[in-house]
Amino acid sequence: MTDWQSLVERLPQFDCVLFSQEQEVCYRQLVEQGWVMPVVYPIAPDLADIPAQIEEAIARFVRQQIHQHQPNRSDTADSQYKLATKLQERLGYLGVFYKRSPDQFLRNLPPAQREQQLKQLSDIYRSIVLAYFAKPNADVNRKIDEFASLAFLADLSMSQLLEIHLKLMEDFSKQLKIEGRSDDILADYRITLIDVIAHLCEMYRRSIAKESR
What we know:
This protein is mostly helical and 213 residues long. The chain folds into two domains: 3-91, no CATH class; 102-211, Orthogonal Bundle (Methyltransferase, Methionine Synthase (B12-binding Domains), Chain A, domain 1), CATH 1.10.1240.30. 63% of the residues lie in helices and 2% in strands. The protein has a two-stranded parallel ribbon. Helix 2 links the parallel strand 1 (17-18) and strand 2 (39-40).
């Protein structure tokens, strides 16, 4: 078995493949056989630069591949899509970052679409609040991640998030008063707000770090 054959068999296991200048023939074979995956060629002479090369190669691959899932794919294309999905999951917020477009920011949407987007965010946030203290409830983390991702893509500000929270608390307070119950319990839901803000701030923090490179 040749080195090239061994490489082809193991390609689906790799997140990224690195080639030195001396391995150009092997790199060309990879390209000619239709493999589209994170590749660094040639690797930087300075080893300290290689991690940045790898990150850029993976990010570029995610951008190109994650929206290209088509039925009836070839085995190679199927392996590439699975790799793209795996890398997006591993990269987490980075994968979401590369889907972000100013055209989808709330402030750039037409009024009707903006209101619809805010309603969707409010509905998800309401479901988070209602489920937050239910135990066991593993679905809460998924809902928080969903909300944070949508809010990030929409460039939701912290003040807008606070408005969503306060409006919901106001609605709950009115309902509790109608039922003759105290609304003191609503103070506990500040924990929910803090949790969601932490998730969202982390996404913004990572995006700023990425943009500054």
